[in-house]
Amino acid sequence: MTLVTPAGFRPDDNRSYAPHDELPAGSDLAVDLPNDADPTVLAPRIGDIALIRIPFPTYGDGRGFSIARELREMGYAGTLRASGYVISDQFRHALQSGFDEVEIDDALAARQPEELWQVEDWKSYRAKLVQGAA
User: Fold this and answer.
1) How far is the C-alpha of 6 from the C-alpha of 119, rounded, in Å?
2) Which spans does this entry mark as compositional bias, Basic and acidic residues (predicted)?
C-alpha cells in the first residue's frame, strides 16, 4: 500500500485498526469506520482516536467524503485516511472534505504516479471565483 499526502507518496505505516464498534481502552487509537456507519458513534471517544480510516469500496461511492466532513464538524482533529478506490482526480475533493491522506494499492500508485496527485496549483472553485472577480 501507498499513502498519498499533499506532500507526496510515502509507504504505508502498517498500523493496526480497531473496529469502530469495539474500541479498546486507551488512546492513540486507529479505527476503521465503515462508509455506512454513523460517525457520531465515535463522539464519546473522539479524543482517544489518532487516526480514522474510511473505506471507498468503489470509485462511484462518495459516502466517505460526507463522513469526513461530519467528523471534522464534530471537532475531530486527528488524521483522516481514505482507503480504497480514490483516484487522483478525487484527491483535491478528499482534502477539501477533511481527509489528510489516501491509502491506495500499489497497482493504482503505478498507474497514477505521484505527479498526478500534486495539489500545489489546485484552487477551490470559490477561490477561483474570488480571484477572477478581483
Assistant:
1) 6
2) 10-23
